[in-house]
Design brief:
single chain; mainly beta; 7-stranded mixed sheet; 4-stranded antiparallel sheet; 1 helix; 11 strands; about 5% helix; globular
């Protein structure tokens, strides 16, 4: 059974940091581009960051550039999203998603929300 499980969400004060993890089971993440998406109530889903299967190419939404960093450890079959200098507007459910590399760029994955599998998501709340 193919599964993606996110962890690391929670409540953090503005200016704080969180590291989200996305662990895969049932398949090898190295064969997939991985994206982090977020969905806040009343807002459109946003592709926060996407990383290629090798980790050599990344894409970030303008909202997270300079604050968010995505990385992957294919040996651990896990992808991470490090989020620093968090703002209240970062509050959302964050989920990771996998896309089998078949011609789509990570830019397209993030911009168009293209993926084959997704996790359930983890809540991130930024509030004082």
């Amino acid at each position: 059974q193919l599964q993606l499980v996110e962890s690391g969400g929670g409540l953090v004060q503005p200016g704080g940091s969180l590291r989200l993890s996305c662990a895969a089971s049932g398949f090898r993440l190295e064969n997939y581009a991985i994206g982090w998406f977020r969905q806040a109530p009343g807002k459109e889903r946003e592709g926060v960051s996407c990383i290629s299967g090798s980790g050599g190419t990344t894409n970030y939404a303008d909202s997270g550039k300079g604050r968010f960093t995505t990385s992957r450890d294919n040996a651990k079959n896990t992808v991470y999203l490090q989020m620093n200098s968090l703002k209240p507007e970062d509050t959302a459910v964050y989920f990771c998603a996998a896309l089998a590399t078949r011609g789509f760029t990570v830019q397209a994955m993030c911009a168009r929300g293209i993926f084959d599998y997704r996790g359930q998501g983890t809540q991130v709340t930024v509030s004082s």
